[in-house]
Each structure stands twice: as C-alpha cells, then as structure tokens.
Input
Amino acid sequence: MSDRGGAGPTDQPETKPWPKPVRYTLLILLISLVGVGAVYLLYSRGILPIAGPFVAMFLGPLFVWLGLLWRRRRLVRRSRDLVPDLQRLEAQLDQERQLPATARSSAASDVALEQAAEIVRLSGQRLAWGQELTAAEALVELADHTGAQWQPGAPLTVELRRIADRARPLITLGRKDRDPGH
Output
C-alpha cells in the first residue's frame, strides 16, 4: 500500500509559486499575444476592415499594468534610498539627547528628542514593511512640527527638513500607487 499524504520526507524539492506581479504580467502578455495573433489572422482574411483599434484593445492592459509596476518600483527604490538617512538621523537624535539641555544646538527637550527618535525609528520600519505613504507623512509632519519649535538653523533641524523634503515625493507616489486612477 502506498502512503498518500504522509508527512514523510520526499525526494522532490519544494516548489514556490512565482510572485503575483510576474504571474499577472505573464498572463496579460499571453492574452495580448493571443489577441494580437487573432486580430492579425482576422485582418489578413479580410474579416476585420481595420486592425489598429483591436490591437490596441489587447495591448492596452499590458501597457497599463507595466506602468503600474514601474510606478511601484520607483516608490520602493526611493523609499530604500531614504532608509540610510533615517538611520543616520536616529543616531544624531540620540547624540543630541546625550548632551545637556543647555549645550543642544536644537534647543529641544528630552521628551521632544525621544518622540522624534521614535517617529524616525517607526518610519524606517514602515518603509521596510512597504508602508511608504504612512512613513513619509509621519516624517513630513515631524519636520513641520519640530521646525516650528526647534532652532531653525540647528544641524539636526536642517537634516530633518532635508529628509522631509526627500520624503515629500514619496507621498505623491504613494497616493498614486494607492489610487491608480489619478
């Protein structure tokens, strides 16, 4: 008798499914190829008077899908470029917190520096988790909040404002990625 569904070891390696974007791209590409081939055959037989609109019907979804993939990839690339800056800023916030309150160039309190460090740390985690929009919005809000309370010319404030300026395009891209119709 054979053991079906047993938990024993097998000689076959475990197979993983391809990622969704790859599967969808291949499916849309296959549909496009079959559709364009059918339009070509119908046009060559004289059944279709024009082929252009029908070819566009089959190729349109492919180009829309590739555009969405490109936009998502750009969002991920820009957020990945922001992570080292956040790590550096978190270290600067910790160094500033170690200084006595009178020696701080930012003139920020311990509580404000702790809150800023926590927001920066959480933003870095959110970027790693793929929550780019939430992370970028938190960084911009932090920069706006601290810019009004901390010393404007302090190196820490300037660095935070620079990071927020780099995060602003992520908000735009994140909103477009979340709502692709706009």
About this structure: The two ends are 61 Å apart (CA to CA).
